[in-house]
Amino acid sequence: MTAIVICALGVAYAGGKRLGTKPPTTTADTTAPTTSVTSPASSDTVSGSVSVSVAAADNVGVSKVELYVNGTLSGTSTASPYSFTWDTTALADGTATLTSVAYDAAGNKSTSAAVSVNVLNTVATTPPTTTTTTTTTSSTSGSLDTSSMTLATNPLQTRALPDLNRIETPTAWNYQAEYPSRASCGASEGLVFEVGTGKAFATPRDVPWIRLLPCDVVKIYYRTEPYKDIVFLGARGDKGKYITIMGVPGTNGELPVFDGVNAVSPPATGTGMPPVFDGFGMFILSRPVNIGNGLTSAAYGYKPGYLHITGLKVQNARTPASYTNLSGAVTSWPAFTAGIYAAPAEHLAITNCELASNGIGFFIKSDQDYMAPAPDYLGNARQSRGLLVRNNYFHDNGIVGNTSLHNAYSEVIGSVYEYNYFGRPNGTSADNIKERSAGVIFRNNYIDGGMHAISLRDPESNGPYEAIQKDALGEDLVKYAFVYNNHFTQRGIDANGGILIGHGDGDFGAQMQYRYGKLFFYNNRVVSKYDYLMYGRDGAPLFEMLNYNRGTVVNALNNLFYAVSATSTGTPAPFALFFWGGVANFPTFVDGAGVTQPSNWINRYIETMPNYGNYASSPSNPNLYAGTKYDGTGHPNLIKQTNDPGFTDFVNGDYSLKSSSVFYTLKAPLPAEVTARSLTPSGDPVMGPFKAPALP
Questions:
Q1: Fewer CB near the last or first residue (10 Å), C or N of the chain?
Q2: Domain holding 97: CATH number?
Q3: Does 597 have pLDDT greater than 70?
């Protein structure tokens, strides 16, 4: 008889031969996985490209997870973490239902509970509501198509480091606005950083701002609670590859709010923010230094640039409100601070924003190039360039009694302000807009009040360099300034305020009188609301030309000037063509019937507004401020008109013009300097906040 041996592995042998195996004992897997949709949360509002996160677990192992949108398969993931990119633009606005299905290797599956979210991709066109006003907006905020772009994760996925050594060689400015463009961005180029409740980045503080690259988009979603984060921007896009920081409005058009009350500075390390700028603003733009985390300092001459900030409300960055500084201490904001502060920056666009109740609404400066040869330090390393300020609402910025804080203050090469609504600054001592730039355009704005509506002072911080910069036609940029197609409401302040346009610093500035040449003031509408007051306010001054010795001249044509009283019992103060003195040309033209006509419509005026001893005479010209200097051509052609200028509803504050207004009959040919730079007026000035046409 042959012996049979069974080894420990269950294999039987007889006479040294294998007879068979003992079948192992197995238990069938009947346990289904568990799964749930973890982000977005139920009732969240979503738009564009959305990151969907799913949790799944199994006693043996999950083989795959499927995402369903309204019962239709949207995507499959076979590896943890289970995440999906969902293009919400394929659905109509409304409720969408998300479910996940998890499978294991045995074929078991389970379906998650449904998560309902609100899809909202259509930008509201109804008037937006903010804490201070209700306005109608043509803002493109929230409408940028990012559906083909990848969502940024938190922590940030692996990507290239920013190039902090890029230094651009400047070119001569051609007086054309530089509109923010993404035309050179590939369909999937750049990441989308979503900020807000239920998003990958809960607050702006969580965004790795220093690691932004060309074509990136930061979408900041509206929430009821204001954001309290101070943001440092040192990133740089590229031509045709702007970096966009955009607000996504609420369901009623509300702008996301950045509030300076109890605001918090960014971390002291890892952001690149220079300590010298601590407390200078809610958004601070400058060259990053001592960054850390794999980055050092940007090269000298590097500037943040090709940046577009749009669709945000920035408020309350001013004393006596408090904030937490870079050291972690709670302190009061300094007096000189801004909603948006840049020093320096280039190719910067600020659009569709509300800047309210800050020290300064918006501030951008330049500085001397301290690496350039002394004594003038003529260099571009710290020079701001290429500014566009469009379709913003400025109001109540400044501090009562402080003459240095304005709604806006800029010193760049190539400055364009267009379609903005400038309400009154806070208090009576400050200008509405202070401008020290070389190369200046103001057009299609609404500007209400201020010590000066626009104060075109001399270049200062990098004045010697700015004064020698040429335009594309080879002429000095400081030689001309173009102010056209605006609406101004001029209001009485005191004996030395309420002036429409200031030009130059004269002998009162510490810097040289760099600004010279011609101020072109054309196709504007000016409403003056002054009560006549002898020896205090006997005229409403139009032009304050302080650099008289440099041959400055006002070329004023095709303007409407309408002076009325401020109160029902007051006597209207006439316009004063000048505050103290100046030179101006008020030309005539020949109409279609061959009749010579004045090119400006004005109902009452005097030549100059005396200073009544408020200032000493100029050392270089003792008679300049005596209130008697007047010169120019065409003065006899200013006729005091008595007919109705044609406002739509002047009594109730509607200063738009009827189509029959006399304004539209003023058709003097534009000067050659204007037409050579393609600065012909078009359209009308805005008559309310956020009324601009869409960006080109």
A1: N
A2: 2.60.40.10
A3: yes
Is position 258 within any domain? Answer: no
- Write out the two tokens for 626: 């005596």
Length of the chain: 696
Residue 232 lies in a domain: no
Of the candidates 127, 169, 360, the residue with the CA atom closest to the CA atom of residue 254: 127
Q: Identify whether 304 is preceded by a cis peptide bond (ω within 30 of 0).
A: no
Give a three-class secondary structure readout of 114-125.
Answer: CEEEEECCCCCC
Which one of 52-61, 132-141, 213-222, 550-559 scores highest in mean pLDDT? 213-222
Could you list the beta-strand ranges (E) of 171-293: 191-195, 217-221, 231-233, 243-248, 257-259, 263-264, 281-285
The residue range of the domain holding 656 is 486-680
Find the helix or strand (DSSP H, E) in which 323 lies.
strand 322-324
Q: Residue 516's closest CA among 532, 503, 526?
A: 503
CA distance 639 to 598: 7
**Rounded to an integer, what distance in angstroms lies between the CA atom of residue 681 and that of residue 692?**
15
| Residue 255 structure tokens | 């702008």
> Which helix (H) or strand (E) is 588 found in, with range?
strand 588-590
Q: For 555-578, give the DSSP string.
A: EEES-EEEEE-SSTTSPBPPEEEE
Q: Which two tokens stand for residue 431?
A: 């200008």
User: How, if at all, do strands 596-598 and 601-602 pair?
Assistant: unpaired
Are the beta carbons of 435 and 416 closer than 8 angstroms?
A: no
- Whether the per-residue pLDDT at 626 is higher than 70: the answer is no
Report the range of poorest mean pLDDT among 388-402, 559-573, 574-588: 574-588
pLDDT in tens, 108-134: 898 998 888 777 664 333 333 333 323
pLDDT one-digit tens code per residue, 456-495: 999 999 999 999 999 999 999 999 999 999 999 998 765 4
Between these two residues, 26 and 398, which has the higher pLDDT value?
398
Count how many domains the chain has: 2
The helix or strand, by DSSP H or E, that contains position 465, with its residue range, turns out to be helix 463-466
Q: How far apart are CA 245 and CA 232, in angstroms?
A: 12
Residue 160: φ, ψ to 5°: -65, 150
In a domain, 139, yes or no: no
* Strand, helix or coil for residue 209: helix
pTM: 0.78
Put the strands of the sheet holding 330-332 in their side by side order.
263-264, 322-324, 330-332
pLDDT band, very low/low/confident/very high, at 497 (cuts 50, 70, 90): low
**Overall average pLDDT of the 329-343 stretch:** 97
